[in-house]
Amino acid sequence: LPMAFKDMNARRHIGLQQLSSLALAGRTLLGPVKSCKFIVDESTNQSTLICSAVRLIESLDLTSAAGQLLNETIQAQNKEFKTGMSTLLFLVGAWSNAVLECLQQNVPVSAIVSAMSEGLRSCCERVQCLQIPIHDVKKELCLCCVSPNAFKSKTYPSEHDDLNPQIFLYVQKDISAPEEVIPVNSCSCQGDDCSFNKCLLSPLDSSGSVASLVTPVGDKSTSVLSGNGVTASSCSKQKLTHSRYFSTLGKSHFSRQQDNFEGHHLGQSADPYECYGLGHLAMTLSHGNQTSTKLLQSIAAYQQGRAECSGSSQLNLAEIVTCCLLGLPESYSCVSPGFVTLVSPEQATVIKYFEDKPLRILLMDGDLTEQYRHLGFNRPCNVRTVLEHPSLQESRAGNLWLNSMLDILIRFEVNLVLVKGSVCDNLMEKCIANTILVIGSVARDVLYAFGEVTSAQPVTYLTQLNTSCVGSGARAELWKACDGRAVDLGELVPVRIKAQGIPLLTAVLTTTVGSKMQLIEDQFWTLVYRLHNALKDEKVFLGGGAVELLCLSHIQMLAEQPLQTANTNAVREFHSQWLAASVTEYKTVVLQALASGWNQYLSAVMCNAAKAATELEACTLVDHHLKKAANYGSTSAYILKEFRRGDLLGGASGPFADHREGLKVYDNVTAKIEAWRRALDLVLLVLQSDVEIITGPKRNQLLSSDASSEFMFL
């Protein structure tokens, strides 16, 4: 009889089994040390490199209802937080297996839903003690990494005589390997405004990037942070962690390309620990993503300087864009002021003509095509469309539209057109012939940024154009790499559009491996949103598995509660003696199954990070910590103690492991909790849906069996 029930149960809960199988594919994507996967299209034999749950689910052919629900859940998490999707995917699989185990033990569905929901709700309340305010994190970072009496730093003069030499403060590493110089932001102020000058240097090597707030690992010198009189000193020595074949340190002399862009003085902050805040906070949230961390530190340092007057400490996402350059080494990744994008070689010739000349700019909030109509446009009634998109080359009306649009641009002396949507190819060719640069597919935030500094007003159609809509002061140039040379990638050429005072920053992401391009961009935006979410929440969780370990301990404690106490609580909640008795009877089984999900989560993270050779070894280490926490008297106090020591679940790992004495690992609060809730909600939704559906090859036998009375016919 138990085997028959198990067979029937398994056949009835196909959805949970599908969730478990899909989640298993993303097991290696959990934690800071991820293993990339190649997704192969069987029809075309083309492959895609992925390293995130979002790209994994997008790449799979999800034909089942459970797969579609999983996709929608992950997309909702990604849309709102841009982080926590791998956790969500893993817990969906772990808790699906936990529910299936409960069903095999004849636990009623109502008891599973009630006990699991209550258990997770109790966990969310319990882990609030591990939330750390952002102010306290900044304070700890300053106390660990800032020496108040050290003010020495090496200053190198600029190559340009018209720039203040004090603008470039460098920290040079005292090692025998090739030198690495990282600029630190400073500024010379005149009145309320000052000019932030920037070296386009690589963040990974001495070719450089926008200044970083952090001293490199192993640096024995100090760096003065502008405006606060605070001096940073490193905490640890250099440690070789990579093969020489993967080294990104440059061996040549350092070339610098300098550019001026407006900013505000990084003066005295209302928060005494704000000076060191965003740069190091980004590192604690990076989970080992070194390249993106240094880019984000540069962006955060610049935005901190601009936002100082308003007292805002938020990260402005609208002022950050990315440009992906395929064909350059990853060491060329950097942050560039203005808008960097890719254009055709024909458009690049126009930019060469306009280089170092002020341009009259036009912004278009739509498509620049003859067929484009704005959102909400109503076509005339009683009109039958014979041909929707006539060929412009064969249509006299099309030629008339092209000529009229070109005449408008020439009449208003427009040199540069930024279009939110697509651009008519024939109009593009005519504009190039008349030295008018047109760039399509420009984000709305970029249009807004240029509108603010050039006084240009976006228009929907060119026929709406008037003198007040055209802005001035924009400049275009070919984007130059860290060695000062312009880059030609063959079919596409990177260019930079800028204007005085524009707050826009472009993170230029480079790689020579085409399959890694999407991966690098995803990693960058994930870190950006982690920092954004942390500042928005104004608090962070302890990372490194601390929160999940407390959840595991708490659920196990609830499962071991005396039966009488649990029964009293259940009666109070359900107002029904019969339902309360049912829930109480199975509560221990369900909570233990829920706890197994946390246990599997911690074991997977430790195995992925090579802190444990096998899952059995990882589980043993987790049990060891649980026993020590029980003997300590307070699990949360024990976790806090071990976290401060940096020895929780094996300590730090990744490129920033050497900073473990001064830098801890933190997680987002709201994003993590929402990932838990979404995972459990999805599992319980599929569970309750499966109850109503009869599937499997022996459907008729089930319907004629004694158990058919519990089925609902739809």
TrEMBL record:
Gene Ontology MF: a single term: ATP binding
GO biological processes: chaperone-mediated protein complex assembly; photoreceptor cell maintenance
PANTHER family documented for this protein: BARDET-BIEDL SYNDROME 12 PROTEIN
SUPFAM superfamilies from the UniProt entry: GroEL apical domain-like, GroEL equatorial domain-like
InterPro entries: BBS12, Cpn60/GroEL/TCP-1, GroEL-like_apical_dom_sf, GROEL-like_equatorial_sf, TCP-1-like_intermed_sf
Recorded superkingdom: Eukaryota
Coiled coil: none
Name of the encoding gene: Bbs12
Annotated protein name in UniProt: BBS12 protein
